[in-house]
């Protein structure tokens, strides 16, 4: 007669063996080296049981999501500790010849470092105006990029530049420099959108998924209003860098701004939807 592999429930009970749930109720849990004392058959499968004397005091472990968020917090703490600057731009479009028509920068204390329209060398298409509300008339007396570039370079020198969808802002900066025959400086960047996607655990096939900037963000808390047309970096009425005292592992960039994400403000819902899906224009 073949030897039985599994115990019966009554046998496990008589031997004083406990399941993980029963161990937890007793304030215990299997330790890193604890092996099951046996298994109990329950009809279709078996579950492990343990000797209480082999177990350790129960303690809460960090979930994969908590560990992932801790890693994001560490990155944000490093950004804040090294005095990063936050940037946002508005552009004449999405194409390879589009240029910046507005730029704003703040520091982690909420002070406005730069806020200006920029006069591009091309006209602003109606499709772009429908998104950000900036017209040719509004930028007609604004400084050109050569006049603004020196301010941008001075403010970003030696600092990491944080943007929501940093790849788009970086590309627009490169293109604007090129359109004026200038060489763009090499600037270290960090993408708040990618950090937020990691925080949320939202992935795409190519990596962390593009996401709309949310109404409440562990990295950038946004408070909506509906006036003004300046970029969100300037519309930060007060930006503060903080580490939540109740959850010290979660460093945050706390930011208040005065208007919702521009695709929601767009007068053409179809255009707004398309720009949002493009992953670039929805700042």
Give an account of the 3D structure.
- This protein has 283 residues and is an alpha+beta fold.
- It folds into two domains: 11-57, no CATH class; 64-278, Nucleotidyltransferase, domain 5, CATH 3.30.420.
- It contains ten helices and 13 strands.
- Helix 3 (64-81) runs antiparallel to helix 8 (192-200).
- The longest helix has 18 residues, at 64-81.
What is the element layout, followed by pairings?
Elements: H1 9-14, H2 20-25, E1 28-29, E2 38-41, E3 46-49, E4 56-57, H3 64-81, E5 85-91, E6 100-107, E7 112-117, H4 126-132, H5 136-139, H6 145-156, E8 161-163, H7 166-179, E9 189-191, H8 192-200, E10 203-204, E11 207-208, E12 238-243, E13 251-256, H9 262-265, H10 269-278
Parallel strand pairs: 5-8, 8-9
Antiparallel strand pairs: 1-4, 2-3, 5-6, 6-7, 10-11, 12-13
Helix pairs in contact: 3-8
As laid out across the biggest beta sheet, the strand order is: 7-6-5-8-9
| Arithmetic mean pLDDT | 76
- Helix count equals 10
CATH superfamily membership of the largest domain:
Ribonuclease H-like superfamily/Ribonuclease H
Please report the distance between the alpha carbons of the first and last residues. 72 Å
Name the CATH class of the largest domain: Alpha Beta
User: How big is the Rg?
Assistant: 27 Å
Please summarize the sheet with the most strands: 5 strands, mixed
Structural class: alpha+beta
Oligomer: single chain
* Named CATH topology of the largest domain: Nucleotidyltransferase, domain 5
How many β strands by DSSP? Answer: 13
In terms of per-residue confidence, which ranges show pLDDT below 50 for 5 or more consecutive residues? 214-283
Give the second-level CATH assignment, the architecture of the largest domain.
2-Layer Sandwich
